[in-house]
Amino acid sequence: MTSFLRSNGSHALLKDQDETQEEIFSLDLLIDRVEELQRIDQLEAIQKLTNKNSLLQQVAMEYQRQWCCTIELLEKTQEAVLVLQRAVEHFSAESEAAERA
């Protein structure tokens, strides 16, 4: 009877150890899967940020291009205003000279 108890006791102990090892193995798999999902999420987040960064760079470059065009247009406008101003001054001077003559 004692040997029966020992064999049943050891069988129960082995069964408990197997279940514990399965739980540990299962827990390790779960942890690995969670880490894998976290890595996937991180990679997706990095990809989204990379895409947004690229879009922002394009927007910034377009803004800079438009700003340069605006500055160029303002410079040409200033030149045109100066030409018109000189023309008006010249016209006024000629009008005054014509009135005196």
What this model shows, in words?
The protein has one helix and no strands. The chain has one helix at about 1-100. The chain has about 100 residues and is mainly alpha-helical. Helices cover about 100% and strands about 0% of the residues. It starts with a helix and ends with a helix.
Give the overall pLDDT as a whole number. 87
**Strand/helix succession:** H
Approximately how much helix is present in the residues?
over 70%
Instruction: Detail the poorly predicted runs.
Output: 1-7
Distance between the termini: 147 Å
* Total number of beta strands: 0
Give the topology.
Blueprint: H1 2-100
Main attributes?
101 residues; single chain; mainly alpha; 98% helix; rod-shaped; disordered N terminus
